[in-house]
Design a protein that fits this description.
about 240 residues; Spore Coat Polysaccharide Biosynthesis Protein SpsA, Chain A; alpha/beta; globular
């Protein structure tokens, strides 16, 4: 276990489960640096994270997942992190599968690895039909645009090396709400090697999902607009 491993967890109102998640990470990776970005929670998320030994950054109000994620990435980049794992604070992502997620990055086969729910060897919960259809359609679109096969573009369970971290922290237009397929496409178009690995995922064990009805309805058009922005930005930089 390399001492330079940093684990970034955006968190909003996950006080009921976050201590358990951090504890399981520490059981498996006692030398890891766990960074919780408390996204303006109205419950005891920050207190539970601090009590569990995580370095905790608290945003003044709820800024959205993308802002919280970028805040954590900027922090670990400035700390000199060489390997970063991003994961949810709601218990969805299985800490025991972090090693599998890290393997392609650790052995130099990839710059970024994505934990997929939909590979044959994955173990996952019953994904709601509408969410699975949305994920499938976006995966097909990303596969078409990137020229490589993807199955799960909405995963927040990822591992990044220093090169990928530098690219993401220097991105001026980091998505504020739900960075998913757009950032994956950006990394591929920048020449980074992105791989998927099968992981274990559970249903959200927290009290509040970030995928409410209205957000889910707006997700696809917002993501398509963001993907188009990535494509236009790439075309403009290669004129």
């Amino acid at each position: 276990m390399a001492p330079s491993l940093h684990i970034v967890m955006p968190a909003h109102n996950e006080g009921a489960v976050i201590a358990k998640v951090i504890g399981r990470i520490q059981d498996n990776f006692p030398n890891a640096h766990v960074i919780v970005v408390n996204d303006g929670s109205s419950d005891n998320t920050a207190e539970e994270a601090l009590r569990s030994g995580a370095y905790t950054i608290t945003l003044p109000f709820n800024c959205g997942y993308g802002v919280a994620l970028q805040t954590g990435l900027l922090h670990v980049y400035r700390c000199g992190a060489s390997v970063v794992v991003t994961m949810d604070a709601d218990g969805q992502h299985e800490p025991e599968t972090i090693r599998r997620l890290m393997e392609p990055v650790a052995n130099g086969a990839a710059d970024v690895s994505l934990g997929s729910r939909f590979l044959p060897a994955s173990v996952t919960y019953r994904v709601p039909a509408l969410r699975r259809i949305t994920a499938t359609c976006l995966a097909k679109l990303l596969s078409l645009l990137s020229g490589q096969q993807f199955t799960d573009t909405t995963t927040g369970f990822q591992c990044l090396n220093r090169k990928a971290l530098r690219l993401l922290t220097s991105l001026k237009d980091f998505p504020e709400r739900a960075p998913d397929a757009d950032l994956i496409l950006y990394l591929v178009m920048q020449g980074l090697r992105v791989r998927e690995v099968p992981v274990t995922m559970h249903a959200d064990q927290g009290g509040q999902s970030m995928h409410g009805p209205i957000k889910s309805l707006l997700y696809v058009p917002n993501m398509c607009t963001s993907i188009l922005s990535v494509l236009l930005g790439y075309a403009g930089s290669h004129k």
